[in-house]
Amino acid sequence: SAVISQKPSRDICQRGTSLTIQCQVDSQVTMMFWYRQQPGQSLTLIATANQGSEATYESGFVIDKFPISRPNLTFSTLTVSNMSPEDSSIYLCSARVDSGNTIYFGEGSWLTVV
Amino acid sequence: GDSVTQMEGPVTLSEEAFLTINCTYTATGYPSLFWYVQYPGEGLQLLLKATKADDKGSNKGFEATYRKETTSFHLEKGSVQVSDSAVYFCALSGTGTASKLTFGTGTRLQVTL
Known about the structure:
The structure holds two protein chains of two kinds.
Chain A: E1 4-7, E2 10-13, E3 19-25, E4 31-37, E5 43-50, E6 56-57, E7 68-72, E8 75-80, E9 89-96, E10 103-105, E11 109-113
Parallel strand pairs in A: 2-11
Antiparallel strand pairs in A: 1-3, 3-8, 4-5, 4-9, 5-6, 7-8, 9-10, 9-11
Chain B: E1 3-6, E2 11-14, E3 19-21, E4 23-26, E5 32-38, E6 45-50, E7 56-59, E8 62-65, E9 75-77, E10 86-93, E11 101-103, E12 107-112
Parallel strand pairs in B: 2-12
Antiparallel strand pairs in B: 1-4, 3-9, 5-6, 5-10, 7-8, 8-9, 10-11, 10-12
């Protein structure tokens, strides 16, 4: 298994500002993923982040809005840029444990944009 | 492409009732199947998984069997507790190391005394 820690756990942000979410995994992993969960909805994949390469974004998500860094095998960041109330969501970091085909999740970062 | 269909919620049960949450999938090849649970105010936790046909995943009294013939992975528990109240997500991961998770819409379970 893997333990995944996210910071911040919750935040209230002003419209137009940007916020960076940090994700730390307790073991080295090749693949990390960022998901968004809008209120009462399922999870939507934003992007896949592999160490040493640019993140791969899903349809509807762009790098200018959601820049991602992956500097090493245990850490990643997601920035939500120029936030609007529509960005109010839970943002979840996850990682594929390389010894198996299981993806584990962090506790999520609950963002409210006012 | 891959997809997961879950039964609509919310599901409301009395404590000690039997639970079934239906999940069917569409995928090429032989995906791995998962159930995740999200308790109120928390992130996602892996509940159980199955990686090949006829495998049964189990945890905390919950179980689900990978049925390739019916492309299903229904979640069951013989006697639910109030503490099981949560949202349950069925998901699949396709074959290959680059595969990502595809989620169902989630089913909210409310257990009452």
